[in-house]
Amino acid sequence: MQDSLITTLFEQFSAGRTPDKSDFNASKMYSLLEDPFGIWCSFHAPEGSAVHELNRYENLKVRTDRNSRDIWIKEHFAGVEFIHAENEKERFQNTLRAMAEGKPAIANAALWNLPKNVYGSINLLQRIDEGKSIFGPYHYRIVQFKRAHDLKEHYALQVSLLNHILSDIQKYTCRYTRVELKTKTVQVDYLEHEERLVRELNYFRNISSGKVRPEAHKPPKAANSPWRVYANKVVAESKDLLMLPALSAEMRQCLRIYGMNTTDDVARFGLEKLRTLLEEPFATDAYYNSVAYLHNKPVLKEAGHFPPPAKKHNLYFDFEATETFTKDNVSFVYLIGIWDKEEDKYVSFVAKTPQEEIKIFEQFHDYIKDPENTVLYHWTEYEAKKMRKMAQENKHDEQKLNRLVSLCYDLKVATQKAFYLPAPSFSLKAAAPAFGFNWRQDDCGAMDSMVYFTNWLKTGNEDLLNKVLMYNEDDCKAMLYLEEKLKSADVLKLK
Q: CATH 1.10.150 in the chain, residues?
């Protein structure tokens, strides 16, 4: 009887096939909400357009989360059965079998409803000995684990979809789904999200069918991997309005209604007419950013903000910090890198532990031999803000840290005050490449560097640390490169 039930349920909810890209995986809810253009690409981009970029940070986080989750489950759910399988078909079958056998808890479960084109993975199914289901005088409820302090919108929709699939299979609707966050447990009410869930699944179907083409994001991350490279190319080559930093989605739509689909269109439309459509400063910003693109030159907003005040010693510095992967570890700055302009060299200070963090700031301070004649250039407020906070927390080094802060000069602020750039944003990763700068490594970004650093600590492999140092060095050199390009650039001026 039990085997017959399992076979019947499997045949009914697999519809004689396995999941394919026409089916919506609950894990894709974040992409549907935050990167719908990436989903569009998976159906409609030219063949061969995908470029798979290894996300080392995400992979490490997933492995770490899984290990922590499995330990927690074993501690809190006696008799839990972990589903093991050679493939997803077998995992679904084994999940159904465990439910039919009435296991008290089932981890690493998979549930499908392919007639409705949905499926997903469930961290834990907990048996509740009340409410009759198709399996007997009990039903299962979902327990999901999320590495966050608060319940996010896509989490709630994701677990609501999983709950919907589970309800169809067990013929019993458990209204609440339990979500274990970093520091608290929350209950997600299926009824509160049912209507929104229907809308989002319909949105997915419209994207996959081609009825809807969502807007991409701004380069250099117009979409997530494997569509980032393709999406960046599409947005840049089409001169899409996304290339204008100041405009919201509503503003871009307004311009499109009036026939402006590219940055060239905006530049040719004219500032005065643009002011009848957009409020200030958005009209002026959009116009002169478009002019910068049209002529491939920076437009000078206001003299006096650039070039920065050079001194005898000019140091371009950048921090790299860890992320917390478990409840036990601590985020800390593990690398301070400096490009010394006068010495024409890269200098680095590395901390292996949170306890060594203050030591590398002391080394940073001591590297500066002539504070009165030194400027510390950085990009964004993060570095100065971090040192101010450390000064409050480390009274012994408060004076040194505050002295470092007093020497800081934010190149991003200066650039933003002085210029409109032919770039989609004032992030260093967008601004420097607009003038020809390229990072030397394709496989090491900010998040990758955390993983390389973590693995270096474990293995002692110096090649891993060298990749982090090279990435940080390029960040430092990018600031100097961009500064020099802007100082020597043939600039346009405001009319």
A: 238-295
Handedness of CA 417, 420, 423, 425 (dihedral sign): positive
Q: What is the 3-state secondary structure (H, E, C) of 16-38?
A: CCCCCCCCEEHHHHHHHHHCHHH
pLDDT for residue 468 is more than 70: yes
**Residue 314's beta-bridge partner residues?**
375
Rounded to 5 degrees, what are φ and ψ at 127? -75, 135
CATH 2.40.440.10 corresponds to the domain 313-493? no
CATH class of the domain at 238-295: mainly alpha
What would the pLDDT profile of 237-259 be if each residue is shown by its tens digit? 999 999 999 899 999 999 999 99
* Cα separation values, 367 from 331, 351, 358, 376, 378, Å: 24, 16, 14, 12, 16
Tens digits of residue pLDDT in 76-89: 999 999 999 999 99
DSSP at 150: S
**DSSP H stretches of helix in 138-259:** 153-170, 190-209, 228-237, 249-257
Burial 305-320 (b: 16+ CB within 10 A, else e): ebebeeeebbbbbbbb
End-to-end CA distance of the chain: 83
Per-residue pLDDT reduced to its tens digit, 27-53: 999 999 999 999 999 999 999 999 987
Separation between Cα atoms, residue 159 and residue 128, nearest integer Å: 18
What pTM does this model have? 0.86
CB distance 441 to 467 below 8 Å = yes
2-209 CATH fold: Lambda Exonuclease; Chain A (3.90.320)
